[in-house]
Amino acid sequence: MIASLILSVITIGTPRPLQVYMEMPVRMVGNEAGRTLHDFGRDGFGWLEVNATATGTCFLVYGEKLNSDDAIDRWPPQNVRVAAARWDIVRTGWQRVPFAPDSRNSLPAAEGSPIDIAPQFGTVAPFRAVETVRAPFPLARDSYRRMRVAYPLNLSASSFDCDDKRLVRVWDFCKYSVWSTSFTGYMVDGDRERIPYEADAYSTQLAVYGISDDYAYVRRTVEYLYGHPTWPTEFKQSSIMSAWTDWMYTGDLSSVAVNYERLKGEKLLRAAARSSDGLLVTGGERLPVSLTNALGYADIVDWPVTERDGFVFREVNAVVNAFHYRNLVQMADLASALGRLAEASEFRTAADRVRTAFHRVFIDAGTGLCRDGEGTDHMSVHAAASKCKRLAGKQPTVGRRVVLELKRRTIAKRRTAQ
Fold first, then answer.
1. What's the pLDDT tens digit per position in 175-197?
2. What are phi and psi of 18, to 5 degrees?
3. With the C-alpha atoms ordered 186, 191, 195, 201, is the resulting torsion angle positive or negative?
């Protein structure tokens, strides 16, 4: 059994409170518009403070993206933030710049309510730089400071270096992004909605384990999502993956033990299992202006739509069922570790049945590639990758087929573009 391989159990503890980190600009420069730019070098969530030496009206723009002329991009791509603040300074000394809340991530929406940040932090926004349009006093490099809000991950627990400095930059960028987006104390989607999503959280979970030893931060989000599920079918399935992965990294079953019935009853989706072969019948993608389809589910595969490689939705979906197989295997492991041996045996039997049905319904015997769903011959990269990851395990021939198919499609797209 997998449980017998665990040599020790890590003490999880409780999540630590959010911290505020004071950061000064790395440079100050005048731009072509005659305005002054204070650049903090990297994006970060927090608020801005100014050291006023006189009273009067102040007007500034703060944002995430800079143009080549050292001005903040007023029309950045979607979900890249830019905003302005205009207020009257009535006293001198350090004081907070008033930020207006963003209605896109501060009010409840169809997908759920954003994570509330503790009131003592006030309105927090992401920005890299500040461009002063008007100030009633001369500016110096240290006239502004950013008060960053972040979870105190132990970033000294990891490091990476190699002879290719591009890889080092990628590592640093990823590590910084994981820490920077911890500003709510949960693994949220960033500033777009400030909501945790199960699949996003699962990816971030693995990243956090790669850079820090703070398992409590991850577990809080995983457990939060048990009771606050989001709409995609596969995201609910991701909760089981997160629970199993939490156990694999910590050796601690306490969270799984408390939430086992919910994982089994709500996240395994066995109510959608077809009696003839165990495959899930989830009905495809959600209906327009709705969070579900006619069967009460909402398959997503990927988002946005342009990233789906033309995936053809069917009531019986290859991606969803690849996830289902993996969930059954993981639930068998968890049940066995908890001493629920009869249920573990039941899950393993169900997994074997789903695996057999998956190969019969979805796999093309000639190529070994995977159809998107029952009743279509379209084979997207997503279906192939899901089959390779969730069902094939370490079979190198399957992985090579997927890679070759990706190369073939990339070459075809380049030729079309030419």
1. 999 999 999 999 999 999 999 99
2. -60, 150
3. negative
